[in-house]
Amino acid sequence: MSVVDRAVPDGPEAVDRPRASTRLELRALAGVLHREWVVFTRYWRSTTFSAVVEPTIFLLAFGFGIGALVAEVQGMAYLEFVGTGVVAMAVLFASVFPAMFGTYVKRRFQHTYDGILAAPIDVRELVTAEALWIGVRSGTYGLAPLLVATAFGLRPGWAVLVVPLIGVATGFGFAAMGIFLSSIVPSIDSFGYVISALVTPLFLLAGTFFPLENLPDWVAAGAVINPLYHTVELVRGSVFGFAGAAPLGHLAGLLAFAAVTWSAAVVGMRRVLID
Amino acid sequence: MTTISHAIALRGVTKRFGAITAVDRLDLEVPAGICLGLLGNNGAGKSTTMRLLTAQAIADAGTVEVLGHPLPREAKAARARCGVVPQRDNLDEELTATQQLAVFARLYRVPRRERRAAVARALELVELSDRAHTRIDELSGGMRRRLLIARGLVHRPELVLLDEPTVGLDPQVRQDLWSLVARLRDEGTTVVMSTHYIEEAEELADDVAIMARGRVIDRGTPRALIARHAGAQVRELSGDPTELAAVEARARALGLPTRRRGPQVAVLRAEGLDGQLGEGRTRLPALEDVFVSVTGEEVT
Ligand SMILES: Nc1ncnc2c1ncn2[C@@H]1O[C@H](COP(=O)(O)OP(=O)(O)OP(=O)(O)O)[C@@H](O)[C@H]1O
Ligand SMILES: [Mg+2]
Question: Residue B125: which domain range?
Fold first, then answer.
């Protein structure tokens, strides 16, 4: 190592210097995403296995179990109804769980974020990249139940091509929610409360396995604030065809959820990562 | 680019954690190109000071400037030019040594075409080239520490912050790291190294800042600190506790600092004495005597 062959401060490398501004720098995001990718290459088998197999079991158990009792729901074969509903569930599970547990472990036990934040990356960029990574991954895993349902006779229209985007948007929002929760729980055991009180109702009361119309009015009305309900509606719309302006409302709901959880995650993580 | 007179300038910096004041109105200037040893016992505020320098801790009062960048406003620009070796190992255990360094080369924005060479160079620097493809969880403790240091150097930082870099290393590896630090400094890199090994500070530091309770209580070259506080000679006397207390009282009357250890009391700046304090062994002073004398605490 020598002083002379170090990059000259005002030389061509000067463009690589991080700015003092508060905007998100692509290079910072790319660095964190690259780290996640390299780590993922070491453990993708187990993660992918559970992310794909679990929703598939739900799909087949409900699809055939309930499907034998119920012929049609909202004009769809029950397997089609549940096949699209389980997409949302798969995205939820593949985003909120890694975000809660993974983020907590990386922060508290492995001190990974302390290392990353010593580099030219700020908390906002770190949180954004982590949520983006989990969002993209869970959006991809969310396609598995759709493929399985297709193998059992689901015939989606062309609009199905937007399902990955819906998945990523959903996954990003729930990842940010998980990251935020990881920043406020007093210990890793507290996630038990979160799962029982929040995650379970979210995935059951979203129109995943049964339509919400049959529930008491106040529960059905409450679904509007369940982001997963919007995901379910958007996924069904893209598979069976959209109607009217409702999809725009659902999309707005999802994006608003992502914006709120992302802001909360940035504030929460800044509080615990910066002394 | 303006000329930077100081690699680091902390002025009146205070950092509190609830009721604890970890750093207390700290003034610390580090000229570019030197190795500064931050010497202090557990809880003195060394790690907190390091975290202030990367804006991972934000000062409650005072100003922090690193490589000419005011913090926290220009924290990212400053961090890009700093290498950090944390006190706590936070390597990604599931990766290989090469993968870990490649990840950090990218986080630190080493241009794509230079990354491979940067990784190889960093491995070589800490003599881990033969373990390049070993998973980190299969490395020995000393190797992990060396890799942690390599990770902090992969982007050729101008300022290196080493927080107790040699804890848990065997003497041979510690020697190797000392020569690595000496080499960095010889090549113009500014090094700030916290330690509570006095011999480490004595060996490596151009300048030593002694920290206690969040403040730098004295600062200077090891030689100047020794001359100032321990003089040219130390007299060690043994005896029972009453005798030792008497020696201490007489030394105090003469204005000489003392240091008690077991059945022995050492009188600093003893060069002017003849037999006044009684018979004892005379030895040369060391930085350790200074540390004890100025902090009033034994070395932990
Ligand atoms: N995140 C934190 N929250 C609360 N207190 C803290 C935090 N970090 C440090 N402290 C307190 O600040 C004081 C200084 O700690 P610091 O880690 O800077 O000491 P140090 O000199 O590095 O000690 P050591 O040699 O043990 O590493 C201690 O009393 C410590 O308990
Ligand atoms: Mg420390």
Answer: 32-59+72-220
